Amino acid sequence: MSESASRVDLPPPGGIAWLDVSSRVDNTWAGRARTGPLGMQIAPLPYARAPYLFRGARLRGTRCIWTAATVSGAELWRRANSFPSFADGAVHILVRAEVCGSVFDPAGPFNGTLRVVEPLVELREVFPANTHLFTLNVQRGTLGVDPGLVSELQEQTFEVTEFQAQLLRSAVGMFRGGGEELSSPGTLVGVDRYLGALAGLLLRTAVLAPTAELEQMESIRSRADTVIVEQAGDPLLTPAAVAGQLNISLRQLYRAFTGSESPAALIRRRRLEHAAELLTTRTVAVQVDRVASECGFASAEYFSRAFRREYGVSPRAYRSAHRDQLGGPTRVTR
Predict the structure, then answer these.
(1) What Cα–Cα distance (Å) separates residue 198 from each residue in 113, 116, 159, 173, 289?
(2) pTM of whole model > 0.85?
(3) pLDDT tens digits, one per residue of 310-325
(4) Taken in order 71, 72, 73, 76, is the CA torsion positive or negative?
(5) Nearest Cα to Cα of residue 132 among 94, 163, 158
(6) What is the DSSP string of 99-151?
(7) CA 115 to CA 95: how far, in whole Å?
(8) Cβ partners under 8 Å of residue 199, min gap 6
(9) Residues 101-106: what's their mean pLDDT?
(10) Is the pLDDT of residue 145 over 80?
């Protein structure tokens, strides 16, 4: 498959844009962010073991947009209400699957989940390992589905069936064979109808997980959070370690967190919450590197970057802002 030059812009109606945003621009998160599907930003996942990768393609009709990509070592997110005009009357479908190889040349079984996402809510997805990502942005008028069903399915997660997996893989073929023939006025109508029908069929065949399975996943999330809160200060605490303590596989752990904050992100957030508590409650202010060490961070530099990203200010500025809680000016100790 031959890919054109790297670009992330929206193609013209009927056009296909090949996406390759795995190259870094500068050594800052903001500098590495790119625009992705559904108005999301793409950036490297800090300290991910898998290489930073987002490669795929985007097809635009006149009212619908379809993307397929291979993602690893990356985080995708968007702010709430970030693109109101983009989301007007839209239905957003996001499918992710743990599959080896490229999305254009998959290897292995399709173990995936489907989410119907509210167009204007905050959205964050983490991809620590090789994952196939599919997104559909379609207008409600193209679905041929009862609006009540769409509302019922929004913000829910479903296991992808073998039939749905075949639908998605068949649609990927449009990127291989599509070209100038997709941009003619008559064909554009067909593209929108096809993508709308694809989305509608995915929604109609979505199956709710049994109540017992949902309860089991909730139990895993709750138990995992308890372990993380109690052991957040341990630098050796990882999702694999949490899974081991719960006597489940790492895949089971991540599956329980599908559609929500990942285990790795939860560990990082709990550590940051503990750090914020230390910075605002200790009567003697300690060095930032000591707080980082006590909260399980491998380095003060990584801790400071993560803290600023979570709270919008540096640890020192956060401590200064809460100085009154520390009883006025404080003495810094090592």
Answers:
(1) 16, 14, 17, 13, 52
(2) no
(3) 888 888 888 887 765 4
(4) positive
(5) 94
(6) EEEETTEEEEEEEEEEEEE-TTS-EEEEESS-EEEEEEEEEGGGT-S-HHHHH
(7) 6
(8) 64, 91, 93, 136, 138, 142, 143
(9) 89
(10) no
